[in-house]
User: Fold this.
Amino acid sequence: MTSINAQTDAHNMLFELTLLIDALPCLAWSAFPDGQTEFINQRWLEYTGLTVDQVADHGWIEAVHPDDRKRVGDYWRSCITSQSSGGTEARLRRRDGTYRRFLFHANSVHDAASAIVRWIGINVDVEDRGHDKRAHQSHEPNLSQIINTIPAHIYVLNLEGGVQYVNQAVTDYTGLAMEDVQQEDYRDRVIHLEDLEKVRAPRAAGLRSAVPFTTEQRVLGNDGQYRWYLVRYKPLLDEHGRVVRWYVAAFDIEDRKRAVDRLQLLASMIDSIPASVWSVTPDGTPDVVNQGWYDYTGITPEYVHSHPGAWLTPMHPDDAEAAGKTYWDGIQSGSGFTTEARFLRALDGTYRWHLNRAVAVRDPANNITRLVITSTDIEDLKIAQEELHQARAALAHVTRVTAMGELTASIAHEINQPLAGIITNANTCLRMLAADQPNVEGARETARRTIRDADRVSEVIAHLRALFAKKEVAIDPFDLTEATEEVIAMCSSDMQRKETLIRTDFADGLPIVFGDRIQLQQVILNLLTNAADAMLTVDGRSREIHIKTELDADDLVRVTVRDTGVGFNSADADKLFRAFFTTKSHGMGIGLSVSRSIIESHHGRIWAIKNDGPGATFTFAIPHGFAPTG
Assistant:
């Protein structure tokens, strides 16, 4: 982070320097410590007609009059060798080919260790200047104009730091006159009290050190608002290295400060997110990584920023190939990705499931600038989902067992009826064969009826065993109308006992559905049983259940069960499918809740409405061609 800040400060300083030099109303330039050209301002280029490439290195010397070139070159080399400022006069060629006399002046800029970091120079047109005092004085307004044009606050201080002169930018910003600025309490009046105390001692020490130094402080403007300023101090030394005066430039950094504060706040927020967050450039290079990722994985920033695939390093080996392909495909296409994978937690060395999402960030031109990735620990959620799945399965089993108790009579009837037929047919067959003239053909037909009844018993037992056994979900294609008819046949005796009539309205040619036949039959059985129970206390009107299958307007296969019972309170409509909510005096309140889970696992929905007349209507609808989820 320190190196990044240092680079940013250097870039900002260079940018500020470029703006300053380009804004000067004279020919100005800067050079590196070894004399190589760094920057030439626009006025210099416009005056000479040369390009930036032509003046690079020492190409600028070509604009100097041939008779003056050696002298100017010697002067410049002496400045570099002695590392001291200096000046000379020479003729400089204008773009129209004429030469005018200019004052060439170079000034060295030093760092905190007194080493030269660059040279700053100006070329001032003195062709029309005389050599008398009046001519010299006529040049002063030009110098003042230059200083007042600089887009920064310029101060000239005495040895003790007292203000001797400020440029117009200072008076315009503060609203104070020159005589006000020169008062001893000037700093107390314009610098924020908190900052005044912070910079007082460093400033005093800097003024005693005779080397350049820098401070930051908030300065009060004439609008009553404080703005942050970066203040740079540079001493003017005499030939003995003693301070003659101080030159100060203050740059408005309020907007930069706010931007930095926002970035720091954003960084703090990202680090506080309870998930791993990071971003990558379009080529997959890690960009920003929050602290959560480092803490969770134990991987260092150095490793992350030197390995484009660092995200995959702590991933479980069994997940790496599939997730890695999803990762790179999502980055290279710019479409992002969503994937689940296990990551190694450094705290305890265990792998835990994470949900990983990536979205692209685009610039105004819709170009992808980076992808932001979040990785959220969902291990506990995974465990809870598995426990919920097991609980639902257990509830479904309990519901089926409960229904079995209510259907005991129906089961006995369904089995006793074909058993009685088997016994009767067997006795008849024996009598036919024991007669003086055995009726072989009649016995054969009777045997066929016996086999038919035995098959019926076998089917009933197999169906009931499947319905009430605890089996894994079976995904099969089947006709929902046929499955509904089987449920009606199975509970017909129970409906007769409850004096309930079932009327059917089945659609022909319904699409085949894919799912668990037994589970969906459980839902139908539950709806029929609830409808019959809702009519047990009904007197004075018939107890009827209308059950209908159809393909609805949404292309879903729908089953509707309508009764003429007591109905339900409209306020309870949203509660009917909640676990343990029941309107029965002896109900468990899990039948409809389990039914909803089954229907939702088949990508469908179930709902209830109160009839305009007596009773209620329960409906479920599922898509055809879809298998249920676990």
Observations:
- The first helix runs from residue 2 to 23.
- The domain at 391-623 is CATH 3.30.565.10 (Heat Shock Protein 90).
- The first strand starts at residue 27 and ends at 31.
- Residues 506 and 536 are 26 Å apart (CA to CA).
